[in-house]
Hints:
The chain is of the alpha/beta class. Helix content is 32%, strand content 19%. It has one domain (38-312): 3-Layer(aba) Sandwich (Aminopeptidase), CATH 3.40.630.10. It has helices at 22-33, 42-49, 62-78, 140-157, 179-190, 225-230, 244-248, 258-264, 294-312, and strands at 11-12, 17-18, 81-82, 88-92, 97-105, 116-121, 126-131, 134-137, 166-171, 197-201, 213-217, 238-241, 268-272. Strand 11, helix 6 and strand 12 form a beta-alpha-beta unit. Helix 4 (140-157) crosses helix 9. It is globular. 46% of the residues are buried.
Amino acid sequence: MKKIIITLCIGSLLTFSCKNxxxxxxxxxxxTSQKSDFQYSAKSALKYLxxxxxxxxxxxxEGIDKAAIYIENAFEKFEVEPxxxxxxxxxxxxxxxGFNVVGVLxxxxxxxxxxxVIGAHYDHxxxxxxxxxxxxxxxANDNASGTVxxxxxxxxxxxxxxxxDVIFALFSAEEKGLVGSRHLATKMKSMEVEPYLVFNIxxxxxxxxxxxxxxxxxxxxxxxxxxxxxxxxxxETEFLGFLPQAAQYGLFKRSDNYPxxxxxxxxxxxxxxxxxxxxxxxxHVNDEFEELDVEAYLKLVxxxxxxxxxxxxxxxxxxxxx
Length: 322
């Protein structure tokens, strides 16, 4: 696997200097990522990523850098390796410098099976118009809930025997137009690394009501993923279902699954529970930890784990485009 690192340094263009040297920045990130006192739980992760300290995790901000360091800490703790030379996969925006955070768990034995990508965007919209003097869009449901779900899956899968590689991608600049995921898909294409499928996660923090399934996937009709995934469970209630509004509003093209579908033509879907009726704080300052149904969310994520493991350990191509 070809390893690539792109390091971007923001500083004075007149002096061509940076606040810290590239080497110092790498050292700081490495030391932070290896803190022996780092403690992780899903609930504490959700609280931290939605805290005012991160100022809404806008791409290019100090807040999103803190979020990235937290994700790196968690990957280090779970023994998820950097996918590139470091966890950071950097790219340039017109108005900011961005980076995805990308890790990998390797299969137990070398084989020709293509990797499964599990992703979520960890950025949000930052500081917006104030409501009752609060201007921080904390992005709890959108998309700290997806980010923590990826961390939980990484923690779980790190303890399992895997038959194919799993790439964990936390995307930045989703809110800027899927920039981070498009960048990673293009880079993987240049490396000739084609994913088996992309399992992207968005907004799981509030649960669906009056549905005969627990979550929906975008682009439901485009592959047999829902049928295969539901077959892993014996419950009468389906795990993944079809939400008509997802098709109506074109959600398949509006999250980080889509650049991978465009680039590779492989099954690429987003799993979600936000159905336009069960949460009123989309891109709102009130999208905060306290508004989430945390216990139901944690149960949903835990129940996802065995199904995702079976996807990873399918040695045949059971999920196909329709």
